[in-house]
C-alpha cells in the first residue's frame, strides 16, 4: 500500500504539467476557437531559456545569445524565462494565429502543427537534441502519511498549478474581460457589443496560456529533465484532459489531469511486476491518452461545443483530375531521366522524393478531397513497414504479395482510426489521429518485444528472378529499384485519378463540402469516410513499404510522429488538393532531392525541419492552395489574359436596318 501511494504522489508532478497545458489549451480555445497543438512546444521554449541560464549563464535567443559573467539567481532566471514566454505568446498570436482566426479548421490545425514543428526544430538547433538536467525550483523533502514517506515536491507542484488554474477560472468568471472572452466563444459580436476587441482578448489568452504552460514545464522538468521531443508531445495527454472537460470546465481539467498523471505513474509501477506481460511493458502510458480521446470523442463527439465567429473562409478549391496522356508521358520521361542521370546519394534523393510523393498523395485523398484531417499517416506507413519486415524476413512472402499484404495492414489500421470520424471531424479528428500516431510509435515501434533495438531487417525484393534491391556492392542506389518505385507510384497515381474523377471522388467532395447535404442526397457518409480512410492508409502503407525496401531495415526512428508531421507540412506547402501538389511535396519532402541538395551542396540539412515549418506557416496564412494551386491559378490567369487580348473571331455581320423617315406631325 505504501508503494502504491508513493507512485500516486509521484504522478502528481506529471499531472501538474497537464494542468498547465490543459488549462492553456482551454483558454486559447475559448478566446480564439483554435486548438493549439503547439502548446507544449511553446511552453518548452521559456523553460529551456531558464535551464540554459542556470546551466552556464547564457541567454539564448532564436538568433544569437548573450553570455553573462556569472549565472543569475534562480528567481531571476525564472523571470527571464517567463518574459520570453510572454514575448513568444504575443509574436505567435499577432503574426500567426491572428491571420487564421476565421480560416477553415484545416488551416488552423496546419498552422498550429507548423508552429510545433518550427519550435521543436529551433530548440534542437539552439539547445541541442539531448536531455538537459534542470535544477529544481522547489525544496525537496518528504512527509509521513500512514507510515509512508511521500515526496513533498510533487505535492507542492500540483498545489501551485491548481492555484494558477483557479486564478484563470476566476478571471473567466468574475472579470469583465473574462466574461467577454466567454461571450466571444459563443458569439464574437457579443464581445464587440460589450466594448471589447476579440483580437485583444485572444492576445491576452495566448500570453497567459504560454506563461502558464511555461511555469508547469519549469516545475516538471526538474523531475525528468528537458527533452525537445517529449515535452513537445506532452500536448497529446493534455488534449485528452481538455476533451474530458468538454473544452469548458477548468475544474474538470484539473481533476482529470491529476488522475491521468497518477494513473500513468501507477502503470509505471505495474509494468515492473513479474506477472505483467512483457509485450505490454513499453509505451502503455501513451495508449491511455489515446483510449481516453477515443472514448470521449466517440461517445460525445457531436456534443462538444463549437465556437461562433463573425465569418468563415471556405477550404481551398479542388479541381477534378483528368488523365492527360501527353503530360503523363512527359512526367514519366522526366522521372526516368532524373533517375538515370543521377547516381549514389542524389539518385537516392530522387527515389525518396517519389516515395514521399505517395505519402503526400495519401493526404490529398483524405484531407484534400474528403476534408478529414489526419496526423497519423506516418504511423500507417510505419505499420506497413514493420509488417513488411515480418513478411519478408520471417515468413518468406515474396514481392509484390508482401507489399500488398503489408499495405492492407495499414489499411485495417486506418479503418480502425476512422471509426470516430463517423461522429466527428475537423480539429477533434486531428486530436485523435495524433494521439493514435503517438500511441503506435511508443507502444509498437518502440516496443522491443515487437521491434528489436537492432532493427527490423527487410529482404530485397525480387521479381521473376530479377533483383530489385536498392543496394548491390558499391552501388548504393540501383536503377532497378528506383524504376520499380517509379512504376508503383505511377500506378497508384493512375488509380487515384480514376477514383477521384468517378462517383467515389464526387462523393468525397460532397462529404467535404457538407455532410448533411451529402446524406440528404443519398450518399452514405459513413461508408464514404471509411473508403477514404482505407484508400489513404493503403497508399501510405505502400509508401512505408517502399521506405523499408530503400533502407533494408527499419527502426522506431524511421516513422516518428515528427516525421509524419513534416510530410504533412510539405503536402500542404505543395498543395494538398491536387496530384501536382503531391509531386511538389515529394520534391520538397524529408530526405528527398531538395533535402539532399541542402545537405550536400549548402550544408543546411540540419535546418530542414525549421525551413519546412516556417514555409508551412507562410503557406497556410498567405497561400492556402499551396505552390501547385498558386501555379494553376497563375496559368489560368495568363490564359484568360491571352484569350481577351487575342484577335476577335470572325462573326457574320447583320445588315444595317434602313433609316426610318422622320415622322411628320
From TrEMBL:
Source domain of life: Bacteria
Bilayer topology term: Multi-pass membrane protein
InterPro entries: ABC_transp_permease, BCAA_transport_permease, LivM-like
UniProt keyword Phosphoprotein present: no
Segments of skewed composition (Pro residues): 655-665
Regions that span the bilayer: 6-27, 34-51, 76-97, 109-128, 155-172, 201-223, 252-271, 283-301, 322-342, 348-366, 397-419, 479-497, 530-549, 569-595, 607-630
Main localization, broad class: membrane
Keywords associated with the record: Amino-acid transport, Cell membrane, Membrane, Transmembrane, Transmembrane helix, Transport
Short name of one Pfam family: BPD_transp_2
Region (Disordered): 642-665
Compartments in which it is found: Cell membrane
Entry annotated with the keyword Transmembrane: yes
PANTHER family per UniProt: ABC TRANSPORTER PERMEASE PROTEIN, BRANCHED-CHAIN AMINO ACID TRANSPORT SYSTEM PERMEASE PROTEIN LIVH
Family: Belongs to the binding-protein-dependent transport system permease family. LivHM subfamily.
Protein name: Branched-chain amino acid transport system permease protein
Species of the source: Pseudonocardia yuanmonensis
Amino acid at each position: 500500500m505504501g508503494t502504491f501511494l508513493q507512485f500516486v504522489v509521484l504522478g502528481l508532478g506529471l499531472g501538474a504539467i497537464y494542468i498547465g497545458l490543459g488549462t492553456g489549451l482551454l483558454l486559447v480555445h475559448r478566446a480564439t476557437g483554435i486548438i493549439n497543438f503547439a502548446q507544449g512546444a511553446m511552453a518548452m521554449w521559456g523553460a529551456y531559456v531558464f535551464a540554459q541560464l542556470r546551466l552556464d549563464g547564457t541567454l539564448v535567443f532564436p538568433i544569437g545569445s548573450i553570455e553573462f559573467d556569472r549565472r543569475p539567481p534562480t528567481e531571476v532566471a525564472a523571470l527571464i524565462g517567463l518574459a520570453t514566454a510572454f514575448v513568444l505568446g504575443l509574436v505567435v498570436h499577432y503574426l500567426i494565429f491572428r491571420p487564421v482566426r476565421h480560416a477553415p479548421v484545416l488551416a488552423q490545425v496546419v498552422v498550429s502543427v507548423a508552429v510545433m514543428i518550427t519550435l521543436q526544430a529551433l530548440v534542437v538547433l539552439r539547445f541541442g537534441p539531448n536531455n538537459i538536467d534542470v535544477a529544481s525550483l522547489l525544496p525537496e523533502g518528504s512527509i509521513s502519511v500512514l507510515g509512508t514517506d511521500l515526496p513533498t515536491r510533487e505535492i507542492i507542484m500540483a498545489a501551485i498549478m491548481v492555484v494558477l488554474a483557479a486564478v484563470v477560472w476566476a478571471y473567466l468568471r468574475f472579470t469583465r474581460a473574462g466574461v467577454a472572452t466567454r461571450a466571444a466563444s459563443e458569439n464574437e459580436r457579443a464581445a464587440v457589443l460589450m466594448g471589447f476587441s476579440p483580437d485583444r482578448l485572444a492576445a491576452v489568452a495566448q500570453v497567459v496560456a504560454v506563461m502558464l504552460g511555461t511555469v508547469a514545464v519549469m516545475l516538471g522538468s526538474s523531475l525528468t529533465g528537458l527533452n525537445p521531443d517529449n515535452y513537445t508531445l506532452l500536448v497529446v495527454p493534455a488534449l485528452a484532459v481538455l476533451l474530458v472537460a468538454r473544452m469548458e470546465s477548468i475544474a474538470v481539467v484539473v481533476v482529470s489531469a491529476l488522475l491521468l498523471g497518477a494513473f500513468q505513474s501507477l502503470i509505471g509501477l505495474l509494468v515492473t511486476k513479474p506477472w505483467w506481460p512483457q509485450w505490454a511493458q513499453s509505451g502503455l502510458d501513451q495508449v491511455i491518452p489515446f483510449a481516453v480521446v477515443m472514448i470521449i470523442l466517440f461517445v460525445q463527439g457531436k456534443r462538444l461545443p463549437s465556437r461562433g465567429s463573425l465569418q468563415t473562409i471556405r477550404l481551398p478549391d479542388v479541381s477534378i483530375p483528368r488523365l492527360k496522356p501527353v503530360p503523363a508521358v512527359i512526367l514519366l520521361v522526366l522521372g526516368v531521366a532524373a533517375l538515370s542521370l543521377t547516381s549514389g546519394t542524389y539518385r537516392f534523393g530522387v527515389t525518396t522524393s517519389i516515395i514521399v510523393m505517395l505519402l503526400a498523395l495519401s493526404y490529398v485523398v483524405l484531407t484534400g478531397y474528403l476534408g478529414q484531417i489526419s496526423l497519423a499517416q506516418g504511423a500507417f506507413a510505419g505499420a506497413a513497414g514493420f509488417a513488411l519486415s515480418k513478411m519478408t524476413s520471417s515468413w518468406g512472402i515474396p514481392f509484390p504479395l508482401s507489399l500488398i499484404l503489408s499495405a492492407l495492414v495499414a489499411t485495417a489500421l486506418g479503418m480502425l482510426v476512422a471509426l470516430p470520424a463517423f461522429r466527428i471531424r475537423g480539429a477533434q479528428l486531428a486530436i485523435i489521429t495524433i494521439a493514435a500516431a503517438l500511441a503506435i510509435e511508443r507502444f509498437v515501434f518502440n516496443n522491443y518485444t515487437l521491434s528489436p533495438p537492432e532493427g527490423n531487417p527487410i529482404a530485397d525484393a525480387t521479381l521473376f528472378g530479377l533483383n530489385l534491391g536498392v543496394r548491390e556492392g558499391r552501388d548504393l542506389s540501383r536503377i532497378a529499384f528506383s524504376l520499380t518505385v517509379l512504376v508503383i507510384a505511377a500506378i497508384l497515381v493512375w488509380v487515384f485519378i480514376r477514383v477521384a474523377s468517378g462517383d467515389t471522388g464526387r462523393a468525397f467532395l460532397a462529404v467535404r463540402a457538407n455532410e448533411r447535404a451529402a446524406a440528404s442526397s443519398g450518399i452514405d457518409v459513413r461508408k464514404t469516410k471509411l473508403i477514404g480512410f482505407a484508400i489513404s492508409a493503403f497508399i501510405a502503407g505502400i509508401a512505408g513499404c517502399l521506405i523499408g525496401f530503400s533502407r533494408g531495415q527499419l527502426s522506431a526512428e524511421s516513422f516518428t510522429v515528427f516525421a509524419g508531421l513534416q510530410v504533412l507540412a510539405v503536402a500542404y506547402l505543395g498543395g494538398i488538393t491536387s496530384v501536382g501538389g503531391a509531386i511538389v511535396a515529394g520534391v520538397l519532402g524529408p530526405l528527398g532531392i531538395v533535402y539532399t541538395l541542402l545537405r550536400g551542396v549548402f550544408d543546411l540539412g540540419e535546418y530542414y525541419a525549421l525551413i519546412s515549418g516556417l514555409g508551412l506557416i507562410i503557406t497556410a496564412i498567405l497561400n492556402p492552395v499551396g505552390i501547385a494551386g498558386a501555379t494553376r491559378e497563375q496559368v489560368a490567369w495568363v490564359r484568360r489574359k491571352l484569350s481577351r487580348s487575342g484577335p476577335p473571331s470572325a462573326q457574320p455581320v447583320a445588315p444595317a436596318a434602313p433609316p426610318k423617315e422622320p415622322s411628320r406631325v
